[in-house]
Description:
mainly beta, 10 strands, 147 residues, Immunoglobulin-like, binds copper (II) ion
Amino acid sequence: MRRTLCRIAFALPLVAAALPAFAAPGSMMVSDCWIRSMPGDTPSGGYFKLMNMSDKPIDLVGVSTDAFGMSMLHQTQSNGSTSTMVMVDKASVPANGTLAFAPGGYHVMFEKAKKPLTVGSSIPVTFKFSDGESVEAQCAVKNAAGK
Ligand SMILES: [Cu+2]
């Protein structure tokens, strides 16, 4: 009897942790989100994968989080030996396809951190899409080396 109770107690937190993944029956999924924590006032990059499970292209149109005063969509464009970042107002995810925000390409630039970031913690971030959907994801804070 005691052994059974013990197993149930162990299993419950796992079930609770798995629930949010099924709570949003939308078309868009955000996964593998992480934020590169930079020292001082240096903007921090945000990286993640977007998956569009609908049969129409959907754009990411904005990102917001309480942890930063400003969150912008950026794209790194390289041009021979130089690379620059430009601000974009959307990034399109193909129908039934994926789009990766990754170093060297699309990223979110988080600026004006409201308090210092703690490596190993995670920050809730809301992603807004052109179909009106909002998806919240937890973004892991990593150090400048991405670890
Ligand atoms: Cu940038």
